[in-house]
Design goal:
8-stranded mixed β-sheet, alpha/beta, binds aspartic acid, 6-stranded antiparallel β-sheet, 413 residues, VC0802-like, Carbamate kinase, binds magnesium ion
Length: 413
């Protein structure tokens, strides 16, 4: 089977949904499993609705606006007698019903039950539209297949159960399903982390022993740098899984970091291609003698720099580190880079859930701490070591690290 992932930008309007059919026609449509994200910026909008719900503001209005934009897209795809309009309305009615009945104060639990609807609706629209155009497919509820633990908003996959479930799918068919979502043992929805649809596609690809997997993007493939942030970037045609994993880990947003590992495990060739130019080769990730090691640049913003020092000038030792790491895990704060000296530890971290001050309170019980917010992590992969000085120009560098051929610096701003 082939696994294709279409992101939110590829289905942002009726023309985008129609274009998916064109992409499929250009690739040959058989034995495909399609994974689709929520339409356009729906996930962000649903996040706002959840926030309003907890703040006792008018979340119904927010949901009404989201519903209207979906109906508008459906208007551009179906005639007004189509069942899809009733189905879209039902999703929103059920969301409102759920929120009205809900007694759980658990933000992350409620978030997952609501935000996941973006993918449910987009996949229904895409599946129905494709059928109307002669692209037969079976719509699947990904939550019946991808099973996770109870870690709402960042579910960890139960691989054994998930493999068993996905193995039950017939391979001579076409399917449309959702990215980003799975479910826990009581069948409540659990999301896999923002931008997690790539990961969903990789889970399906792994469990189906897919021939290959492609994610369709609005860029030509994986570039040597984000063209919105860097000049003179070029397309990487062939890179290894390791290179792609490193790039994703350092913040190249074109691929979700968790996506590569399942594909690498089974050597499933993986392509990143443009849905605007589907005939172009894009980037191939996999094992190939052509694998490139080109200098590439990654800027990950929205980071914080945390400096932690012992109070008594004792060395930073194992007991300190275990205290610090368990506090980071507790507050779900991720380390992007770390460096230690004898008596201090510097961490460049990503605070996805706004917990950094709580972390700081906890750490300051035992350490002297300092936080610099709004810093960026700049990484140069395969850096040309003879010409490093140019990277320092006009930058306020707070921390730097060079390992192998990777230069990293934490910069202000
Ligand atoms: N819709 C989800 C998000 O925007 C998942 C994804 O797009 O991959 O985070
Ligand atoms: Mg999305």
């Amino acid at each position: 089977m082939k696994v294709y992932k279409f992101g939110g930008a590829s289905v942002k309007d009726a023309a985008g949904v129609k274009n998916v059919a064109k992409v499929l026609a250009s690739q040959g449509y058989e034995n495909c499993l399609l994974v689709v994200s929520a339409i356009g910026k729906t996930t962000n909008a649903l996040e706002v609705a959840v926030k309003h719900y907890f703040e006792k503001e008018n979340y119904q209005q927010t949901l009404e606006d989201i519903k209207r934009s979906h109906i508008q897209i459906a208007n551009g795809l179906f005639d007004d007698k189509n069942d899809i309009f009733g189905e879209i309305s039902l999703f929103f009615d059920e969301m409102i019903f759920f929120l009205r009945q809900n007694k759980s104060p658990n933000y992350n639990f409620v978030y997952d039950q609501v935000v996941s609807c973006g993918e449910m609706i987009s996949s229904k629209i895409l599946s129905e539209y494709l059928i109307s155009q002669g692209f037969e497919n079976t719509w699947l509820d990904a939550r019946d297949f991808i099973k996770t633990d109870h870690n709402y908003r960042e579910g960890a996959v139960d691989w054994e159960l998930t493999e068993k479930n996905i193995a039950s799918l017939g391979k001579q068919k076409n399917y449309v399903t959702q990215g980003f979502i799975g479910s826990e043992e009581n069948n409540f929805t659990v999301t896999l982390g923002r931008e997690g649809s790539d990961y969903s596609a990789a889970i399906f690809a792994y469990c189906l022993d897919a021939e290959h997997m492609t994610i369709w993007k609005d860029v030509p493939g994986v570039m040597t740098g984000d063209p919105r942030k860097f000049q003179d970037v070029s397309l990487l045609s062939n890179i290894s899984y390791e290179e792609a994993i490193e790039m994703a880990y350092y913040g190249a947003s074109v691929i979700h970091p968790k996506t590569l590992q399942p594909l690498k495990q089974k050597n499933i060739p993986f392509f990143v291609k443009s849905f605007l130019e589907p005939e172009k080769p894009g980037t191939q990730v996999g094992i190939s003698p052509k694998n490139e090691q080109t200098e590439s640049y990654i800027l990950k913003d929205g980071q914080a720099l945390l400096r932690i020092a012992t109070r008594d000038f004792s060395f930073i030792a194992e007991e300190h580190l275990s205290l610090i790491f368990s506090a980071l895990a507790k507050f779900k704060i991720k380390i992007s880079l770390m460096q230690n000296t004898a008596i201090s530890l510097a961490l460049c971290v990503e605070d996805k859930y706004g917990n950094i001050l709580a972390l700081n309170d906890e750490l300051s019980k035992n350490f002297n701490t300092e936080i610099v917010k709004n810093v960026s992590l700049f990484t140069v992969r395969n850096a040309d070591m003879k010409h490093l000085t140019k990277f320092y120009k006009d930058k306020d560098v707070l921390l730097e690290q060079i390992s192998m051929r990777t230069l990293q610096m934490v910069i202000n701003g």
